[in-house]
Amino acid sequence: MRTCHLIRFQRGHTLVELVMVIVVLGIIGVTFGFFIVPAVNANQAVERRAALIDSAEIALRRMARDIRIALPNSVRVSYVAGTGFAIEMIPTVDGGRYCLGGDANCSGASQLLAIGTSDTDFDILGCFQHLTAGPLPSATRLVVGDASGAVYTGSGTNAVVTPASTTITLSIVNGGGTIASGSCGASSGPSNTSFRHHIQLSAGQTFSAGSDRRRVFVIQTPVTYICNISAGTLTRYHNYAISATAPTPTSPPSGASMVTAVVTDKVDTSIAGGDSCTVTTLTSDVQAKGYVTLSLRLKNAGETVQLYHETELDNSQ
Description:
Elements: H1 15-68, E1 76-80, E2 84-89, E3 92-97, E4 119-123, E5 134-135, E6 141-144, E7 168-174, E8 195-205, E9 215-219, E10 223-228, E11 233-238, E12 259-264, E13 277-279, H2 283-289, E14 291-300, E15 303-312
Antiparallel strand pairs: 1-2, 2-10, 3-9, 4-8, 5-7, 6-9, 7-8, 10-11, 11-12, 13-14, 14-15
């Protein structure tokens, strides 16, 4: 009996084939290094710059929004070159025009605001836009006649702001004519008058000076933005008490219930002498000219952007 054996021959790669593979891989590697890697890096750089621009724009828009709705003459600025800035303001919640003698359908002590003497209630012409009837939040305060930023220091006979302890309650009252509806601002009779808001204070308040435009503002707690160049951060502080002492770049406001939020942590710390964030330098300039100029420079992974923003505010009373 004959046995057959199957013999298999295994063929390996020749030296020439190995050399060819190495050459081809080298060509591919060089091509990737010269063309693909730079393209990928450029795309990543564009994405980083776009992210920095978005971050800077959001930060500037957020500051600008709070500045635009700030109580007239409440913007306080502290700027130290190379260190950063602190900008504080008191945002308004709402506002209106208070009743005085001679206004249509405004008469009597309960409707008119007494200037220079204690008063506990008065009407406004029309209604607040964002407030409804009932007690207002505990931090809510009223401001009348602040032409110089006295909201931070006013007290006693110089008061322009109601104390934090005073409760403010709104109700809807008839502005004249025949009652036809209980909705604030709705027509209430043939005299084309309307319902309006009545303000009741839990304690008497003496506003020593009136407003040129008869304006009453509803405010809550201050807001401060601090740009700290050495830390590379722009931070927002709110929900703290009004203080006569203005914040500085190295001395933020304080309070047990204060809330802080980092707006951006990409402030450029590499500039010799600072100036990654600047703001109009004097509080008096802001009050006199009615605008704030902001500059913010951000940096991340070698990419840098710098944006400028000018915000107008209303300092009239």
